[in-house]
Amino acid sequence: MKSLVAYFSAEAGRTAAVAKDLAALMEGALYEIQPSVPYTAADLKWINPFARCNREKMGGKDVPVEGSIGDFGEYDTVFIGFPIWYGCAPNVVNSFCKAYDWTGKKVYIFATSGGSGIGKTAEKLKPYISGAEVVDAKVVRNANELKSWVE
Ligand SMILES: Cc1cc2nc3c(=O)[nH]c(=O)nc-3n(C[C@H](O)[C@H](O)[C@H](O)COP(=O)(O)O)c2cc1C
Fold this sequence. Notes:
Layout: E1 3-7, H1 14-26, E2 29-32, H2 52-58, E3 77-83, H3 91-97, E4 106-112, H4 121-125, E5 133-139, H5 147-150
Parallel strand pairs: 1-2, 1-3, 3-4, 4-5
The chain binds flavin mononucleotide.
Residues 9-16, 44, 46, 53, 83-87, 112-116 line the site of flavin mononucleotide.
């Protein structure tokens, strides 16, 4: 099994920490999903209605990503990690996902959050990973909670 952990993390590196530990556990490759224009702290202040995060969310905006994964086709299992934003995956994760062919891949979705559960996160991401089988999706605080995925 060749696995890839692809993650986006913006605020405090919480998702990054889980992703790194998971990649070590899986002995898999690690890839950071980055927007072409990095988020500043002001961009993430959702309390401000005009903040970038709110404009992107309200406009359903495509958020261009930096770079790409050349050997994506070689991975049969992909772990996708991100912080829950507004009850689902951030738009930049959708933009990342729709650039690749997911046919036949096994996908595990993990997220960190400020308290929200996984809710409909996986269902909302599915149109962007069509052809993949979503094996599991959950909100976690650390990679130990994902150990069952490794076995
Ligand atoms: C724009 C934005 C929207 C968010 N929406 C939610 C939400 O709907 N539910 C929730 O529990 N946390 C929400 N959060 C909090 C993050 O999910 C949480 O802080 C996460 O662990 C941050 O991970 P990171 O450090 O990897 O970016 C939101 C944060 C931001 C910046």
